[in-house]
Each structure stands twice: as structure tokens, then as C-alpha cells.
Amino acid sequence: MANFSIVGKRIPHRDAVEKVKGSAIFTSDIKLSGMLHGKILRSPVPHAKIRNIDISKAVKLKGVKAILTSKDVPLIKYSISPTWADKLILADTKVRYIGDEIAAVAAVDEEIAEEALELIEVDWEELPAVFDPLEAVQPGAPRLHDEVENNISKTMSMECGSIEEGFAEADVILEDTFQTQAQSHCSLETHCCIATCSPTDDVKMWVSTQAPHPLRQRLAATLNIDAAKIHVSAPFIGGAFGNKIDLEPAQALCVLLAKKTGKPVKIEHSRKEQFIATRMRHPTRCKLKFGVKRDGTIVAKQAEVVLDNGAYNSHGPAVLAYHNVMFSTLYRVKNIKYDGRLVYTNKNWGGACRGYGDPQASFAQEVMLDMIAEELKMDPIDLRLKNANIPNEVTANAVQITSCGLKECLTQARDKSEWTTKKAHKQKYRGIGVAAMIYTGGGSIGSGFNYSGATLQMNADGTFHLLMGALDIGQGSNTVLTQMAAEIMGVDPESISLTTADTDTTFPCMGTFGSRVTFCAGSAVTEAAHGLKKQILETGAEMLEANIDDLEMKEKKVFVKGSPDRSLSYAEIGAASFYKKKKPLVAHGYYNGPEVPPEFNPVTYEGYPSPALVFGTHLAEVEVDPATGKVEVLNFVAAHDLGRAINPLLVEGQIEGGAVQGIGWALMENLQFENGEVVNPNFHDYKMLTIKDVPKISSLLVETVDPNGPFGAKGIGECAMVPTAPAIVNAIYDAVGVRIKDLPATTEKVFQGLKTQG
Amino acid sequence: MANFSIVGKRIPHRDAVEKVKGSAIFTSDIKLSGMLHGKILRSPVPHAKIRNIDISKAVKLKGVKAILTSKDVPLIKYSISPTWADKLILADTKVRYIGDEIAAVAAVDEEIAEEALELIEVDWEELPAVFDPLEAVQPGAPRLHDEVENNISKTMSMECGSIEEGFAEADVILEDTFQTQAQSHCSLETHCCIATCSPTDDVKMWVSTQAPHPLRQRLAATLNIDAAKIHVSAPFIGGAFGNKIDLEPAQALCVLLAKKTGKPVKIEHSRKEQFIATRMRHPTRCKLKFGVKRDGTIVAKQAEVVLDNGAYNSHGPAVLAYHNVMFSTLYRVKNIKYDGRLVYTNKNWGGACRGYGDPQASFAQEVMLDMIAEELKMDPIDLRLKNANIPNEVTANAVQITSCGLKECLTQARDKSEWTTKKAHKQKYRGIGVAAMIYTGGGSIGSGFNYSGATLQMNADGTFHLLMGALDIGQGSNTVLTQMAAEIMGVDPESISLTTADTDTTFPCMGTFGSRVTFCAGSAVTEAAHGLKKQILETGAEMLEANIDDLEMKEKKVFVKGSPDRSLSYAEIGAASFYKKKKPLVAHGYYNGPEVPPEFNPVTYEGYPSPALVFGTHLAEVEVDPATGKVEVLNFVAAHDLGRAINPLLVEGQIEGGAVQGIGWALMENLQFENGEVVNPNFHDYKMLTIKDVPKISSLLVETVDPNGPFGAKGIGECAMVPTAPAIVNAIYDAVGVRIKDLPATTEKVFQGLKTQG
Do the chains contact at B588 and A584, CB–CB below 8 Å? Predict the structure, then answer.
């Protein structure tokens, strides 16, 4: 490892103490004089025509300051991409799920706003609804969107090589179907926003978001106002996990209520709203057919996939594409066929959720590999090693891989977990399972869709200030990115102050998602820091009357190499710059994804231009209670190739968090619907892991030092939950021979499996 | 006049509608979860030793979260300059005026905090006090500060030429003494601040201040913390007039209370606190002796000045220096002697107040000139024209004048006011008076003490964002500075959004005072704009494959001259820059006052290096009610040389505001003390002009186009009230022969004068 002072150090999260002590200020903590409270009337029915909305009683309620229905708002459909736009901020003629936005009220307090909602009378014509995507595609099924036939929002079909020839070559062919359930993001902070709107229509928003700059653009487009009139900033964020990338209807309504009333307006989701009316992880049904040689070489793989989109697109089409890319790119398979459909149903809408389709793909593929290993009587790790991706290859679906540590992840996790010993000396009701993964570690598709900027300036007192559009949503980017700047400037990271998540004062940044921040924002930060270092050395050279090449920067000083007495402190340089030389020391860095190459096929996503790919392996050891079916995770090893760990402590935090979320999805988390209604919209009925359920998690950091990443780093955030569920499910099978193909692997299902075995 | 599109236009104040409609957010409007309210225990006696402070009862009051006394705070004295430091944020052993800070309480609401103040028991030893500066300098007078003999904080003695030879040359010598009273700033918003302090001691403040960056530095020095750990930002400011430049003890206490409690704390001054415990305009006593030739040439002028400093220095020493510089620089007089003393008394402390000593100097000198004109039987305007400064001269006190329109101000005001006609056809009880002025129009003393930075960036959609440390405290700088940027970028000023008054995201700026913002921040803005224009043209040249010299920028487009079809919109350039070229378009500008020249004498202030000087003339017409002595101002003409009016509408606003404040000071405003106690600390007893009292004010803008100012502009803000009072007082004399030498010229005094005449 290179000789770094700050990079690679286990530095605690910058915000840790502030959050633990409760002094961190979240959006909800902000109140402004005269501030009104907004509430949203939501559809209580899954599918209906709106004949009429009567607000006459509600407007008369004392304390009500404004009511908006679709007549009062721009009827501009949106999605994360204009191509897929299908959602209005308020339903005009139709509602499509229980939770759909119908009207918004601003009142002097939340209670009055809620009372007003009850006084709004909606005249419905209920319509037949459809909740199962397989039913939704049938002829004659209720149609959600007039213009969308068979409720199919998007299809994606790809064939690489020849699937027919592939299967012809195979010694063994296995087929099976795997299903995954809806998961809620469960961030402890619900969506919250405050908007003010000046009489000249200048909008200022404080908002819990993962993507302030895109939010500004989406608000502008959806409200038909100029983006330059909107100022978005994000206070501390209490978790997001993909749920706070979209424009939320509440945010747009908040702006319009502020505009209508001339007062600040706050809208804060209740926990129930968070469960029923924000995004969920897309449920999937994935039919797989794999062809393998006796030696374990996978020669063909085929997937037939249905993603349950819920009522609106949000990220759906991109999640489908990612499902394909991740499924198809992992392992060196020449012949691949993928057929996916994204299907509307009258349910809560799917969206970005940690992993972005990849955990669903991983679950199907990795359980299938376990079944193949069994069939071939091959060690599951050996099977994966046999087919593992290698550095600098181009895959069958034309994806360029640069650094790749998949094999190292597999072997290191095997060693750490004592896999071989445990396999050799199997204990009853105990099992061990493995799964592998691939994901992007440098954000999404190329130039224009994957940008991050940074500005680093030296203050007059020789300290530094870093401005970035990228924001810390809890994952620790503020710590990691200041470490990079600190390494280059030769100072402690704590001494670099920060402005982030503010659309006015920072350069555009796509936001915090896609495991992109370390790579993309990190690239911008290092560029800015190198630029600033050059300026400081130039200033030092001028002041010391020395050659710039003879200078060094260390311990907050610029000095002539070999003549430590000829030196200037950073404070002296800062003061001279601001108070004498009329030249502030400031430098900018900007990362923009690589140009989308002509090889990229936007229909099939072949040649997907990922700036970096990350790999990993999870290895779970479980014990199953034969009397009840209850699964206990005893040990967990997670090995991740992340290029370089800028801060191993925070990487471990990410990995542990991801594993916990993954174990939850594997064993219990399940957003359950009955006739389109979420029946567990609270933390009592929606089961998550508690601290008691969390096993010992061993994180192994495989540092492949990516050629393009800052200090060689790639991403980790989303990756850390991708292979968790199949590792658990494979371990359950290893323990008791019950094969779960339909998540979650609840105690009840395992018990049923045991019962069937007899 | 040059052919400008935006500069010189009467564009309304950017914030006008927002403020009028009440939607502007001031510091007081901000509330945070768990926020506590701070209150300050102030001395009820003018001079005493503190034997003991007993907080035992107060701490027990339910709802009280923290109490600070001098034992809990750094005992670091401060002032605007470390040289003059004499004030603690909490008195340790002694209080020196009624209002001095003794303790601070944070509680869950203001009422409880106030109740706690009453429970704090202070054991006093009262000391004899002194309220009159002439008594304070006598041997044996009570001494305020142990280390300061005779209570003289500072003296300033200067002789230019030979005062003796000057008087020897004179045909006529006049002597008299003039006195001015304390004035309160009376901003409608009182001091208000909110502080949060993280467990890692990162401080964030929202504060009503004129100088966020210096405030950060002063807080750091006074609290002995690192400036980089403090983030100051200023929401809308509801007026300041010099009273919000200093560090206010409340601000430092707010930080310490936040630190101690771990909660956000707000401290908002009551109106009474604003009157008794923030700064005031220094009362002065000015004994003048002038020697003139029969033709009106002033050959010698001598001043003996006492400034009543109140209990602490604040800006006092600098105000004394300015009193000298402005008195001595105005008019071409070869022989000058100045002797000034700044004297402590047990009263509210003097500080910066619009004009910074100059209105006091102007009052004495300009009334004296009126007396000389009478003595010489010379027209008062002719007398001033005879002695007026001229462009590019170096004065007897070695001040370099660049642009100078004093003569134009005098003659244009004379014409506008119909002075000659009115003098020729005098109506009974009506009179007309004149006074002239000089002031700095580009801020204070040179490099390192007069800096302002600006960053201008093009957004991805081709709009612009301007970041500046300078802030709009109501005077309109946001409008004026965006006009300058808009002129250069070829867009509407409204389309340029702004970040100001934020220490993290903007370059250091000395702040908004000293009539410096248009000149200094304007210089930074124009530099940034020219830099950005170059970048845009370079980008355009590259994209259009054209030579940069062949390109023009107009109507939000870059195009090839003569080929308007070969063009790119700003939006296209912005998008390419951010989404294709990886090169944000951003440029910086930084103004720093000229290096202090070796000729400058810091003891006498000879050679004061002002970046620009401004001149002006006020001409008042009054009618005096002979029965009551009541003075009505009928007409008012104000001519100001401000280099160039970037926005004549806002300049007129400044002039009108200045004149109104000046008329108030001339006729009624008076912070009155009895035994050190302010007896009129409210808007009922402290008389100000109301809208009914405001005469028609005609503003004449004399545009001398300063060689150093941005677009030729100089300052106006403070200047506009400098010569108002003497113009009024001279008009009263012209009307009824009553000569007021002791401000304010109340109805009572004028009536007494009339009675004395009989």
C-alpha cells in the first residue's frame, strides 16, 4: 500500500458525536415565523376515477390557509427521466393506488390541516384494480395508464452470443423461478421539506433529499419554473437508501402552498405515509434457465423477469435495466438471454432501493448457482471461482471491466469463514452459504448523467473549506472526502470545514446514490486539491523567492526542501493571499462520467459504460431451529473489492449496515399488501432486524486500486446488501435442506419446508 | 455617459416586494427544535465593583438550562482593533455603565430567562461615576479603566503647515464652540442572533450583522476558538447604520450558551436594550478657530475636540481619527491644527454610526463657515466654492484626492434650490442654508483592512449565480452589484441569483459599512464578471470553432460577429460546460485596498490612503414658527458626487434616508442621559422623524466617473447624512437669526433663541 498519512486511516464519522448527542439539525428541526403545515389528501382506494372534489367545507375551517387540487397545479407528468414521465403531483382524473396524492392543505398547525383533509369530499367512480403483475399483463386486465397497453411500462430483451448454442453445449441444464418481495427503505427520518416562496417567486427549500441539484431541476420542470429561481439545501439527512432521490409530490406541493400563501410551509410525512406512499423495492419474479458443463463452466444463462412497478415509473425502467446489466455481467458467460418486463399494478410504486434491482438479480442467480453446485457436486465457491470475472476483460454483454477482485473476495471470505473446515465437519442444523455480486462503483451511465463538482479554498487563516454538491446521507462521505483533500493538503481532515448539499453555492452533483460519491465526488475533490496545492506552492515560491520544484508542503507549512528554516506557514500564505496579494487561493474540480461510447446499446444496455465495477462475496453461517423453523445468523463474512478503502472504519460501517438490511430482507422485511392496501405500515408490523438479531460481521476489504478511482477507490454503499439474501438462503439449505425460492425466508416458510421434508 | 444597458438604470430594490409583503426571513423568524432563549443581566448602576454574584436561586428555577458569569467565559478584552481592546463580554470585577453585561441565562422561554435574571443576586460596591467628558479628564475624577489615566482613551494631535503663520496671515479670525448629541441608530430590527454548537465545537450562527467575516474573526479571538470552526451567516437585515459592525457581547454569549447546553440558543435584544446597551453616535464638543482672508480664503483652521467615548472603545479611536481626517481634508486650507481627545465616561459606549464622526465635524465646520460668510458679507456658497477641493490635488494633510465634484455639487444645488432668487427675495421666517461634505467612498484604510471578494458562476442552464461576502443591509447592494455583473454578462440583473453574507461559501469581505460596498465589492464583482466572460467566450470559440476575437455576447448568446446564425445560447454553453466538458464556468474577483503608503502617518492620519473620496452639498429651506420656535423643513436639495450612479433610484433612496436621519439628528433625535441612565429608551420618548415630517427631497447626482471605481462609481451610504444638520441650522439662522451651536435644534432651543432676541 502506498504511504498515505490520512487516506486509509480509521477516522470516525465527522457527524458521529453530533448525531449521537442529538444536536444535529434535521429539516424537521427548522421552524420559521408564520410557518404553515401542509398535509396531503391521499386516495383510500386503489383505482378510481375522480368525478369531483369539493373543498368548500374544508376552506371554511378556521386556520386553513390554502387548499390545492389538480386544478391549481401544473399538470406535468414526471419521473426520474422525462421519457418515463407518468406521475402528476396531484391526480387529475384518476387515482392508481392507495396513497395517490389528491389534494394538499396548508394550515396553521398539523391538526387543523388533517381536519381539513377530512372535510374534503371526493366523488369517486371506483374501478377494478389489479395487484399481481402476471394478472396485469393479461388481456382484459384493468389498465392503469390509458396509453400503456397490457400495463407493460417497459420491456428489455437482450441476447448475447447464442442462447440456443449455449444450451446445446451444456452438460446440465437447470430451470427454476425465484421471487422477491417489496421492501421499504425504513429510514428513521421520514420525508420532510420546508419551502418559502418570495413574491418574486424565488423559492428556497430545506429538504431531506439525496440529490439537491437534480431535485432543483425536477422541481423546475414539474412546476414549470426556472431552475435558477429555486434554491435547495439539505440539512442533516436521517437515512435515505434510495427513497430520497426522486422528486416527491410533497416537495412540489410544499412549494406551491408556499407560493399561494406567501408563508413558509413545512410538509413532513408520517411514518404511515412513508410506508404507503413513498417508493419500495420492486418485487420481482425471475425465471432462470442455466446451462453448465460438468467442470462448472456456465455456458448459457437465460432470465425471464417481471418487475412489479406499482402504479408509477419512478426509477422502474432503470431498475429493470440494472437488473439485466448486473445479472448478465456477473460471471464469464458467453451466451446470455434476458427478457424483462416492468408491469404496472395498483400498488405503491417501486423505486430506487439500495442495490437498484441487483439484490433481486443476485438472489435468483446465486441461489441458482447453489443448486447447480449441488447438481455438479462441486463446491459452491469453486463453481463461482471457475466462472468469476477477471480484471480488464470485456464481458459477453460488452461491459468493460477494469479492476476486479472477485476471486480474491471469494478466496479471502472462504479462508476467513473457515468454510472448508465447516463444510468438512458439518454440524446438524447448521449451514454455511455463499453468494457473490457485482455492482457499479462509480455511478451511473456516462457523461451528463454522472457529474460531481468540488471547490476547495484556503481561508485567510490557512485553514481550508471544501464545497461539494455531494452530500452525506449518513454513509460518511463528508469524512471520506475531507480525508482525500486532507491527504493532498497535508492537514487533519477535521480542520477542513464543509459546505455540501446546497444548489446555490456548490457545483452540480448528481447526488448521493449509485455508490458513486467516493468515486465521482472524490475525483472532483482530488482534482480541486491538486489544483489548490499548485496555487499554494506558486504563492510560496513567489514569497520565498524559491523555485516551485524545490518546495514541499507538510505540517501546515511550505518550505524549501532541505532548508526547513526557509518556510511559510499556511496561515502566512492565507493571510498574504487575502490581505496582500488580492488573489484568493481557490481551485475547482469536476468529475463527469466518461462519454457514452457508440458501442452502448440503450435498448439492451449492452456495453453499459460503468466507470468502475465492484465485486464482493457474502458468506453466512446459520443455525435453524428444527422445532420452529427460526433461522439464526451465527457468523457473517463480507468481502468486498472496493478499489481502496479510504476509511476502513466507515467502509465496515457500510458493509455492516448493508448486511443487516440484507439479512432483514432475507428473513423478515416485507411490505405486505391486501387488495392494494399496505397492511403493515408501521414499525410494529413491518419487521426489521433489531440489534439483538445482528450477527458478528467480519468485513474483508479487497483493495484492487482501481486505475480511475481517486486514490484507487471505488464504491461500496449499495453493494453491501446485494449478495446477502442468497448467502443466507443458501446457508439455510446447507443447514436443513430447505430451499427458499421466494423471499423472505420467514420462520413460517422454513418450518413449512421442514414439515414437507417430514 | 457611456452606453450601458443595465448600469445607470432605475431598477427597483431586489428585496422590495419581499420586505413590503412581509415574507422576508430575518434572524428573529428562525426557530430550531429545542431552541433556548438567552437573556442578559445588565448593570443597573453606572459604576460599581462587583463583589460577588450569586446564581444559586436562579439555577434552581425550572426551565433554566445554563447561567454564565465572568467565571465561565474567556476574559479576553476586545474592541474593533486589538490595540484598543477594553471590553469583556461579561464584566468580571467592575461595571462601567448602566447596561454593562454581568451574566447570561439560557432558558426554555424568554419569560423564564427574564425571571432567572431577577433571581441573580449581585453584591455591589457602588463607585462614584462621571458622565461629562470635560469632568472626566479632571484630576481626581472617577477612573473607568485602571490603566487609563484621566480617562483619556486616545488623543490625536496634528499640525499641517503652520497654524501660527496661518492666523498671522488672516484678516478675520473667528472662534466658537459647537456641540453634538448622542444619536441612536434606531434600526427597526434589534440585534438578534442564533447559535448552535456541535459536540465537536463547530459553531453555526445566524446573526443580524453588517460584517459576517470580521464577526467570525472577532468571535474566534474573543472566545479563543479557531475561526475555521465558526460559520456565520446573515439572513435579511432590518437596518444597521453602523450598530451591527462590532462583535456584540450577546453574540459571544449566545455561542457559549449553545456550547454549554448543546442546544440552539437565540438572543434577541429588546428595544430598550437596543437603546441602552448597544452603540451610540459619539457626542462631541468642538472648539474651532478659523482664520480667513477678506476674499474668503481660509488660511488657518484649528480644532480642539472632545469625543465622549462612553464606557468602552468600540470604534471610538477610529471615529476620532475620521473626525480629524474629514475635518482637515475638506476645503483647501494650508495651515491646520487638530487636537482631539477621546474620553471615557460612565455612559453607553459610542460606536460606528452613519458618518463615523464626520457629521459631527461637518456640523462644527459648516456652521462656522456660515458665521464667516456673514462676517465677510459673502454668499455662503461662494465662500465654499472659493475654498472647495479640486480633482487630483494633494491636501495639506497629504490626502490624495482623485475625482472630485464638490464645486459641481455646490453650483448644481444652488441652481436647483433657486438659492439666488430666494436669497434676493427673502420671506419672513423663512431661511435657506447650505453645508458641504467630504467622506470616503471606497472604504477604510488600505490593504488588509478593506477587502471584498466575489465569485460569479454560470449555472448549467446558462443562468448565473453570484457569491459575495458583502451583504445587503437594506441599502440595495444586492441590486447594484448584480447590475454590474448583469451589464458585463449581458443579462437581466434579476436573473442572477445570489449568495451573500455567509462566511463558509463566500470570500472574506470587511462588510457593509464605510460607504465601501459599491466601490470595493463592485470592483470584485466586475473582475469576476470579466473573468467569467472570457471563459464563456473561450468555450464559445472552441464550440463554434471560431476565433475568440470574432465573438460577441448579447441576449444570452455567444455569436460570431456578422454571422448571427453561428451562435450558442448561454444554456447550451452552460450545459456543455457542466455535462460534457468537465469544466465549470466560474471566475473570482477580489478587491483589496491599496497598500498603505509610507507617507501615511498612523499617529496623525496625515496621508490617509482613501481609495476614493466623495463630496456633496445639502441645501435646506426652513420656516420657523415665531410663536413656538418650531422648525419646518420645506425643501431639501442634496447634491452628491458619487462617481457614477449604478442605480439612480437606489442612490436617491440612500440620499433621502440619509437626509431624513440627518434632519432627525438636527432637530430632535437625542439619546438623553440622567446620571448615566438613558431616560428615553423607547420610540415614544426618543423622537424621530415620521413620514409627516419629511420634506420634498431633491437629489442631484454628480457623476465624476472615478478612475478607480467600478464603472466609475464611488460610495454614497454614509455620506448622505453628513452635511444635513449644519444645512438646517444655517437655514434656521437665515430664517430668524437664531444660531444653534448645540444640537439638536429643538423647538425649545429655537424658541429660547427667539425670546433672547426679543
Answer: yes
Q: How far is B560 from chain A (nearest CA, A)?
A: 27
CA–CA–CA angle B200, B202, B208 (5° rounding): 155
pTM of the model as a whole: 0.94
Looking at chain B from residue 197 to 236, which residues have their Cβ under 8 Å from any Cβ of chain A? 197-200, 202, 226-229, 231
pLDDT digit string (tens) for A585-617?
999 999 998 888 888 999 999 999 989 999 999
Q: Which residues contact A254 (CB under 8 A, 6 or more apart)?
A: A38, A193, A194, A195, A205, A265, A266, A267
DSSP conformational letter for A677: E
Q: Which residue of B has its CA nearest to A591?
A: B582
Query: Where do the structural domains in chain B lie, given as residue ranges?
Result: 31-127+187-240+244-277, 284-444+608-757, 447-592
Q: Say yes or no to pLDDT of B677 above 70.
A: yes
Q: Is residue B423 within 8 angstroms of chain A, CB to CB?
A: no
Do B637 and B700 contact (CB within 8 A), yes or no? yes
- pLDDT higher than 90, residue A200: no
| Angle subtended at Cα B550 by Cα B549 and Cα B555, rounded to the nearest 5 degrees | 105
Per-residue pLDDT for A245 more than 80?
yes
Q: pLDDT by residue (tens digit) across A614-667?
A: 999 999 999 999 999 999 999 999 999 999 999 999 999 999 999 999 999 999
Average pLDDT over residues A550-558: 93
The alpha carbon of residue B460 is apart from the nearest alpha carbon of chain A, in Å, by: 8
| Reported confidence tier of residue A37, pLDDT bands at 50, 70, 90 | very high
Evaluate whether A31-127+187-240+244-277 and A451-592 have a shared fold: no
- List of residues 6+ apart from B487 with CB closer than 8 A: B4, B5, B6, B7, B711
- Predicted ipTM of the assembly: 0.92
B590 in contact with A at a CB cutoff of 8 Å? yes
Q: Which residues pair with A268 in a beta bridge?
A: A192
Report the residue of chain B nearest A457, measured CA to CA. Answer: B507
Q: Do A465 and B590 touch (CB under 8 A)?
A: no
Cβ A95 vs Cβ A50: under 8 Å? yes
- The rounded mean pLDDT for chain A is 96
Report the top-level CATH class of B447-592.
alpha beta
- Taking a C-beta distance cutoff of 8 angstroms, is the pair B436, B723 a contact? yes
Does A716 score more than 60 pLDDT? yes
Q: Are B103 and B40 spatial neighbours (Cβ–Cβ below 8 Å)?
A: yes
Could you give the CA distance from residue A740 to residue A669 in angstroms, rounded to a whole number?
Answer: 15
Q: Does B504 touch chain A (CB under 8 A)?
A: yes
User: Could you give phi then psi for residue B732, rounded to 5 degrees?
Assistant: -60, -45
Using CA coordinates, name the residue in chain A closest to B449: A579
- Determine, for residues B196 and A23 on separate chains, whether the beta-carbon distance falls below 8 Å: yes
Inter-residue contact B374 to B317 (CB < 8 Å): no
- Give domain A451-592's CATH architecture: 2-Layer Sandwich (3.30)
**Which candidate from A18, A465, A499 shows the least CB-CB separation from B200?**
A18
Q: Yes or no: say if B50 and B94 are a contact pair by the CB < 8 Å rule.
A: yes
The per-residue pLDDT for B581 is 80
Indicate the average pLDDT of chain B: 96
Q: B137-144 contacts: CB < 8 A, separation 24 or more? A: B137/B306, B137/B341, B137/B343, B142/B47, B142/B346, B144/B47, B144/B96, B144/B311, B144/B344, B144/B345, B144/B346
Chain B residues lying within 8 Å of A579, measured CB to CB? 447-448, 451, 592
- CB-nearest to A262 from B23, B31, B32 is B23
> What mean pLDDT do residues B65-78 have?
98
Which chain B residues in 272-331 lie under 8 Å from chain A, judged by CB atoms? Answer: none
Superfamily of domain A31-127+187-240+244-277: Aldehyde oxidase/xanthine dehydrogenase, a/b hammerhead (3.90.1170.50)
- Please give, rounded to a whole number of angstroms, the shortest distance from the CA of A30 to a CA of chain B: 5
First and final C-alpha spacing in chain A: 54
